[in-house]
Amino acid sequence: MPSTPARHRVADLRLRSAIVDRGSRIYWPGPTGPPRALLTLFEVGASNRSIDLDALCRTLSAACDFVVLAVRYDLLPEQRAAIERDAMRTLEWAAAHAADLLADPDRLLIGGRGAGSALATAVRRRAYEQGWPPILRQLMIPTL
């Protein structure tokens, strides 16, 4: 079994949401230092992929020196619009609390894997249309 990169700290979060069965986790890279970029990463799909998501987030946090906020959704077709609104609120929360998370509020990133990439694209588009928050880059992570 391949080892995952070391990381400084991981914590589970429960963000208030209208969507049920949503888990969030935050990953901080190595020892404290200057505030790092904050990546909000969306995962949409079956919960049996959560181990893969954990390994991916550990790798991104350690190798890229990002603070990673991973948010997972179980997608039901009738929830699509609600999930998009909720994901936008999650990004706004992340931007507003970046300093509390030891991240740089001026260095926001957004990303996703699989259907999470489509969600990240929709959220980035809505954020751009609303003029807030500024997002530096979008990462699309292939599903393996």
Mind explaining what this structure looks like?
- The chain is of the alpha/beta class and 144 residues long.
- Helix content is 33%, strand content 30%.
- The protein is built from 3 helices and 6 strands, in the order βββαβαβαβ.
- The chain has helices at residues 50-64, 80-96, 115-130, and strands at residues 9-13, 23-28, 36-44, 67-73, 103-113, 137-141.
- The protein has a 6-stranded mixed beta sheet, with helices on both faces.
- Helix 3 links the parallel strand 5 and strand 6 (137-141).
- The longest helix is centred in the middle third of the chain and has 17 residues, at 80-96.
- It is globular, with a radius of gyration of 14 Å.
- It starts with 8 loop residues before the first strand and ends with a strand.
- The mean pLDDT is 81.
- The number of helical runs is 3
Quickly give the structural class.
alpha/beta
The fraction of residues assigned to DSSP E strands is 25-35%
Could you say which overall geometry the principal axes of the C-alpha atoms support? Answer: globular
**Main beta sheet: strand number and arrangement?**
6 strands, mixed
Average per-residue pLDDT, rounded, comes to: 81
| Helix content range | 25-40%
Task: Summarize the entry for a quick read.
This protein is α/β, with parallel strands linked by helices and 144 residues long.
Layout of helices and strands, plus pairs?
Layout: E1 9-13, E2 23-28, E3 36-44, H1 50-64, E4 67-73, H2 80-96, E5 103-113, H3 115-130, E6 137-141
Parallel strand pairs: 3-4, 3-5, 5-6
Antiparallel strand pairs: 1-2, 2-4
Helix pairs in contact: 2-3
